[in-house]
Amino acid sequence: MVFYLEIKDKSITKAKFETDGCMTSVIAGVQTLKMVHLRSIFYAQQLKDQDVLNALGKFPASSAHCCTLAVETLKRTLELFNKRSIYGIHL
Known about the structure:
By secondary structure, this protein is α+β, with helices and mostly antiparallel strands. The chain has one domain: Alpha-Beta Complex (Sufe protein. Chain: A). Helices cover 56% and strands 16% of the residues. The protein is built from 4 helices and 2 strands, in the order E-E-H-H-H-H. The protein has helices at residues 23-36, 41-46, 49-56, 64-86, and strands at residues 2-8, 11-18. It has a two-stranded antiparallel sheet with strand order 1-2. Strand 1 (2-8) and strand 2 (11-18) form a beta hairpin. Helix 1 crosses helix 3, helix 1 packs across helix 4 (64-86) and helix 3 (49-56) crosses helix 4. The longest helix is centred in the C-terminal third of the chain and has 23 residues, at 64-86. The chain is globular and about 35 Å long.
């Protein structure tokens, strides 16, 4: 899973993702991005996989790891953004 974020004024203004996973992986990715779109980076960094599961409602327990994958991918993407911002790298 890969996330692409556009961030302006510390808010996520655009968000897309790619995955080569199963349909539940796609659903988890879509829900994660819906939850952070037009929200602050701080909010996105606080998101937990259980928050995504709760928002989805019914979701196969055997696929809960897809929500974990989506949230962890989001957090790693934000970490990379923060590191680049610290060093003055703009993409």
